[in-house]
Design brief:
single chain, 105 residues, 2 domains
Length: 105
């Protein structure tokens, strides 16, 4: 089974590889890259870009979307699925205002 490809989804590598495409790579597409589409890029599509589609954009259209949910949503989903020990571990490090019962009320 191969990984699904989602057209237009901008993601950045999460591994520690310094090779092309790796999380610590400074080459194109790498997490530390300042080139277009890189995690540290200020160019269109980059993680630090304030332009349309960039990670720091304040525009209301074509916003940056991550496949990683905000902590309150993630903790709530873990608990809903019965991963209570994992949820508890995250709560130990998460500020109380980000706990689902405090965040959503």
């Amino acid at each position: 089974m191969s990984k699904p490809e989602i057209e237009g989804l901008i993601t950045w590598p999460r591994n520690l590889s310094t090779l092309s495409g790796g999380g610590l790579s400074t080459l194109r597409g790498g997490g530390m890259s300042t080139l277009r589409d890189g995690g540290m890029s200020t160019l269109r599509g980059g993680g630090l870009s304030t332009l349309r589609g960039g990670g720091m954009s304040t525009l209301s259209t074509n916003v940056y979307r991550s496949n990683i949910p905000p902590w309150p949503h993630f903790v709530r989903e873990l608990e809903k699925r019965g991963f209570n020990s994992q949820s508890e571990m995250i709560r130990n490090y998460l500020p109380e205002h980000l706990w689902p019962e405090n965040f959503f009320n």
